[in-house]
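Lab notebook: predicted structure, single chain.

Context: the supervisor wants predicted structures on file for every construct in the current expression panel, including those that have not yet been purified. This is the next one on the list. No modifications to the sequence; it matches the entry in the shared construct table.
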Amino acid sequence: MIKRIKAGSRDSKDTHKSDYYKNIFSIYNKKLNKLPGMIVDPFARNCEWADLTNDLNPNTKAKYNLDAFEFLKTIPDNSTKLILFDPPFSQRQEIEKYGSNNLYASDSNKISLITKEFQRILLAGGVVIKLGYNSTKIKNLDLIDCLIVNFGGSRNDVIITIHKKMNKSLGDYCE
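Prediction complete. Output recorded below exactly as produced.
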């Protein structure tokens, strides 16, 4: 079932500053409170909700300023309970955040490499909270929830999908 969240056209375009995002993060963080592991945000901007924050832009509060894929490669296997996944999916967002051509939306291979790292670093039972303009499933993770944030007629909706790494299976050990 898809849930619809009503937001206002005056809500921040920066999802990390929006109340709906904070609420969803809070709900899933509470659900995972007994699961050991850290919270990771590879596109954090100035968000401080995660234990490990990264953003390519050095003028943010993020602890690391690496390419998201390179950042994720530094994280140990099975060490993460929650990943906040909110990359700039459009050219407009890329220019606003980084002042350059889109590093991620124009290269689907980069997103595939990043989500493959999610599978490696997530603990069984861990989740990815993905924000974007699509509901593309993250390979090898189960889609467990889908929410649409509606801002009104003047702005695009934001689609939030929650993906969960289920218990280990033989497939977790094969390439």
